Amino acid sequence: MSSLLTVSQLNTYIQSRLTGDLKLKGLTVRGEISDFRLVQRSGHIYFNLKDDTDSVRCAMFSSNAARLKFMPCDGMGVLVTGNIDVFRRDGVYQIIVLDIQPMGAGALHTGLEQIKKKLAEKGVFDTSIKKKIPVIPKKIAIVTSPGAAALQDILNILSRRFPLVEAEIYPTAVQGSDAPKQICHALALADKSGADTLILARGGGSLEDIMPFNSESVAMAIYNCNTPLISAVGHETDTTLSDYAADMRAPTPSAAAELAVPDIKQSFSSLAKLRFRLDCAVGDYLDSAEKAIDGCIRILKSRSPQKKFENEEKTLFALRDKLDLLMNGTLAAYDGRLDRYAAQLAALSPFNILDRGYSITTKSGQVVYSAEQLEYGDEIEIRFRDSSRRASVL
Coil, helix or strand for 265? Predict the structure, then answer.
């Protein structure tokens, strides 16, 4: 005869049998996530793991979920490692998940891609908002580990290339679980320091070593900086989310120092060349301006009232000379005509007859042609060649 058990006793028995089976401890199950749920208050994760026909419940407590390097989601193919246990209240068994690994790409890569996509959607990597790095900074703030060789490389290059710049160091851890928090704090202090440029740097290392610079918090801290920032993390082949969020990426810390300041020797050489070009340009400009002024002076003189007066005076003199010529010609012509008329008058003048002994008798101003025109006692005038005499008719 079968034993009489309560539901609690049954579930407890089944739980003890399942949890006592060593084959069901530390097992790895392949499947696809569905009904994924993250409880924000507790940090626990719940989901179903399914294949083509079946599914099993899974639970991952916050202590293990916090160690995940990516965020699981529905439809993701994963390998789940954990232990079988029974949820006695509902009488169902489930996998108590200890670790989740994405199938295909590794957890680190998957997590980075998820963070990168999230930051890109926020506009953190938008190139249109990148700030320009100052050409000649007065002060540079360096956020890095104070004992790192990268710091000495940066300081040496800054001193050699541009000794006028002030370098201020903001120390922080650059690897480990506490590094993202320290980096964010150091960046906030450096951003308020009045520096013209920030340099975030660390030397090379493994992907795990440089993971703090792939964290969402550090990328957002860089994005929120008001000061232009150069990211120089790892070796030339390493690229982190900090590089994408920064205003400029340098392949190495040494390269960041070279990008942050100009070479003072080259600057002096460039200044000398610019001064020479400026002198030549100013000289050419002055020559051109002088020629333009001379041209304006010539135009002004040609159009000035004095010049106009002189031109009008010349024109007046020319017209006067022309008028004189015309008048002299006209007068000469009239003189000739007058001489001819005078000769003609002289030839026809009755006074010429007087030279031959004739005389002209006039009465009351009228020529007397006949004696019958005279009467006794008339006063007459007799005109001779050289003079005239008055007489009375007897």
Answer: helix
